[in-house]
Amino acid sequence: MLDAIWLDGYINYGVKRHRNPLNYEDHKIAKEKDVKSPLNKNEKEGIRVALKSLKNSSNISDYFLNELKNHLQCMLSSNAAAVPMFGITQDPETSNYLIVMNLMNGGNLRSNLLIIKYNPLEKYEDLADIAYALLTLHKRNLVHGDFHSGNILCSSNVASINYISDFGLSRPVNQTINSNEIYGVIPYMAPEVLRGKPYTKAADIYSFGIIIYL
Known about the structure:
This protein is of the alpha+beta class. It is 31% helix and 21% strand. Strand 2 and strand 3 (16-18) form a beta hairpin.
């Protein structure tokens, strides 16, 4: 996942583009050697976004379209389920496609658990967000297929909302994957999936149970 500044910003309610004033830190970061297309001095507005690069996607693949479609389905079902997505763009150097999403300043649930000592109320609020997001996905008759704390992103460090991300392995419940390979983070994977059985809604819920245990 990459951070970027979208100079044009998104169109707010179909009326005008939404942009924020850029600050000194934004221009300071632009001077670092690894930054592509650094900011110019006269560029004073934009919004910070996250870019998910899809390797070897210069030709649009079924994998790319699947992730895009399932992310949109979940996001449009509820604005509090999937990370808000603005659209897609293309890397001018590699021609790979990138998904442009709202930047989640709070990081992921895994990193937050390492640095924040949750009190019971905070933890229950987070779990309620996550359960609601997962329910939204399942109501669309989709399974996530890679549900773990690293794929749950927080909107901010204060009063955050937890969103599901990374829909690359999500698919309709009745669609099987034609592969003998097992994908995912092993501690979160249901025993039947590890034995080669199809991924189901119940397997997502098993993963959620591991998150509750954290």
